[in-house]
Amino acid sequence: MSLEDGLFGIHGKALALRSQRLSLLASNIANASTPNYKARDIDFDAALKEATAQSSRGPADVGQAVDDAMGYRVPLQPSLDGNTVELSTEQTLFAENAVKYRTTLSFLEGRINTINRALKGE
């Protein structure tokens, strides 16, 4: 177990995974009108499970966990140009993930502030 795992637990990996997912969802939104673009997403729970399992065996590779948990989104209503991005779905998932990212970040900020106060003897 690394020092980071001991200090931040699962939250450090969760933040990295949420950041990767935000980038992926933003890419989907940016390509909403690109012909034949296939929307991708990360199965967050599967990626987090893999990242935490990796850390028990050695250094965790969040990038590998993301790659293993990534898949293509199946659209509810396929478009004629082959694009599978459904803008409303992507925007909803992006907003939801952004809120969860901020929540995880706030938790980590609180943990860091607690450690800083402990080191200062407050």
Structure description:
The chain has helices spanning 3-8, 10-30, 44-57, 62-69, 87-120, and strands spanning 40-42, 70-72. The two termini are 28 Å apart. By secondary structure, the chain is mainly α. It has a two-stranded antiparallel ribbon. The relative contact order is 0.18. The protein is elongated, with a radius of gyration of 17 Å. The mean pLDDT is 89.
Task: Pick out its properties.
two-stranded antiparallel sheet; single chain; elongated; 2 strands; 68% helix; 122 residues; mainly alpha
Termini, distance in Å?
28 Å
Q: Which residue ranges are poorly predicted, with pLDDT under 50 across at least 5 consecutive positions?
A: none
Average predicted local confidence, pLDDT = 89
Sheet having the most strands: 2 strands, antiparallel
- How many E-type strands? 2
The structural class is: mainly alpha
Shape: elongated
Widest beta sheet: strand line-up? 1-2
Helical content stands at 55-70%
Over all CA atoms, what is the radius of gyration?
17 Å
- Overall domain count: 1
Estimated share of beta-strand residues: under 5%
Order of SSEs: HHEHHEH
Q: Tally the helices: what do you get?
A: 5
In short:
The protein is mainly alpha-helical and 122 residues long. The chain contains 5 helices and 2 strands; from the N terminus they run H-H-E-H-H-E-H. The two termini are 28 Å apart.
Secondary-structure blueprint of this entry?
Elements: H1 3-8, H2 10-30, E1 40-42, H3 44-57, H4 62-69, E2 70-72, H5 87-120
Antiparallel strand pairs: 1-2
Helix pairs in contact: 2-3, 2-5, 3-4
